[in-house]
């Protein structure tokens, strides 16, 4: 089903996380109205998945929330679906939950950048991990299809704590096909995090650190059955111009996946040969053969030896 995304920068947000500048990240400065959604839907000839991203959708208030939901089912084709992102806990309000779940919801994306109280406090987010987990468990019990948005490189965050988060979330998920997005913490101009970096209070990840950390997290999440739908931020000229620190790279996600796959291949077969789906050729041959070089690094073979053992099927 085609996705029709709408970005609601800071929509419903009660405060601002230290790293956040949604207008820069999305390139959207004005929040679209329900009328804008209706206009877009009027041009669609097949059912679509309307995606409300940015801000915290369920904090828009009951009446506004209903307008954004109604417009999807009242316009365009029969069979439209709704996906949205929101804070964990927003659906603990029964009135809001009953409203939202009466619509054709395809996926609820929850921002869970960390489950570490110290990290959440430093980022100025809701900082009760037990409440976050209770909220996720409730949605699971209600059979709500979920996606989790996690981050690496946050203030006070360690690789060990973020990998522990994945294990905790996986235990709740069980065998369900939950989705996951992985974002690096970038320092965006005109954020509190920029001031923290300039004062020495925060040191952003290097590109190399982000690739290895992200690669290990992707491997762990995949092993637990999470469906990875994105790694890295959507690249744009605006974003490139406004990043002042951190692991900014237009192909960061691909580099993370290359690292993750190389680790997995060597663990499965330390000596090779290795068999890789042809759709993943770019993860090994692209970016100056980054994946092949990782295989050589992890296996102890030369690049030429790795090439002779690597088979695309």
Main attributes of the structure:
alpha/beta; 313 residues; 11 strands; two-stranded antiparallel sheet
Structural overview:
It is a single chain. The protein is of the alpha/beta class and 313 residues long. It is 45% helix and 17% strand. The chain is built from 13 helices and 11 strands. The protein has a 7-stranded parallel sheet. Helix 7 (159-173) packs parallel to helix 9, helix 11 crosses helix 12 (281-299) and helix 12 (281-299) packs across helix 13. The radius of gyration is 21 Å and the shape is globular. It starts with a strand and ends with a strand. The relative contact order is 0.10. The model has no long low-confidence stretch (mean pLDDT 93).
Question: Which SSEs are present, and which pair or pack?
Answer:
Elements: E1 2-7, H1 22-26, H2 34-41, E2 48-53, H3 62-74, E3 81-86, H4 94-100, E4 105-111, H5 117-123, H6 129-141, E5 146-152, H7 159-173, E6 179-184, E7 187-188, H8 192-198, H9 207-223, E8 227-231, H10 237-242, E9 243-245, H11 252-268, E10 274-276, H12 281-299, H13 303-309, E11 310-312
Parallel strand pairs: 1-2, 2-3, 3-4, 4-5, 5-6, 6-8, 10-11
Antiparallel strand pairs: 7-9
């Amino acid at each position: 089903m085609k996705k029709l995304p709408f970005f609601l920068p800071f929509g419903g947000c009660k405060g601002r996380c230290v790293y956040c500048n949604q207008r820069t990240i999305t390139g959207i400065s004005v929040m679209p109205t329900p009328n804008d959604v209706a206009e877009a839907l009027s041009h669609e000839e097949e059912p679509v998945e309307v995606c409300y991203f940015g801000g915290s959708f369920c904090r828009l208030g009951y009446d506004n929330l209903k307008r954004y939901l109604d417009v999807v089912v009242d316009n365009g084709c029969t069979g439209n679906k709704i996906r949205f992102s929101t804070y964990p806990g927003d659906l603990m309000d029964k009135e809001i939950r009953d409203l939202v779940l009466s619509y054709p919801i395809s996926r609820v994306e929850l921002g869970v950048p960390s489950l570490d109280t110290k990290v959440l406090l430093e980022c100025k987010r809701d900082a009760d991990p037990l409440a976050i987990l209770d909220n996720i468990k409730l949605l699971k019990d209600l059979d709500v299809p979920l996606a989790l948005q996690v981050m690496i490189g946050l203030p006070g965050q360690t690789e060990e704590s973020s990998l522990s988060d994945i294990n905790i979330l996986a235990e709740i998920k069980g065998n369900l096909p939950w989705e996951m997005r992985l974002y690096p913490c970038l320092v965006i101009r005109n954020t509190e995090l920029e001031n923290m970096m300039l004062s020495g209070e925060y040191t952003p990840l290097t590109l190399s650190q982000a690739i290895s950390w992200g690669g290990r997290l992707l491997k762990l999440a995949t092993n637990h059955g999470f469906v990875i739908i994105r790694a890295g931020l959507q690249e744009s000229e605006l974003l490139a111009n406004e990043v002042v620190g951190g692991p900014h790279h237009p192909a960061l996600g691909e580099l993370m996946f290359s690292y993750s796959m190389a680790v997995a291949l060597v663990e499965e077969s330390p000596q090779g040969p290795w068999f890789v789906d042809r759709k993943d050729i770019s993860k090994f041959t692209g970016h100056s053969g980054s994946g092949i070089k990782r295989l050589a690094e992890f296996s102890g073979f030369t690049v030429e030896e790795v090439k002779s053992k690597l088979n695309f099927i």
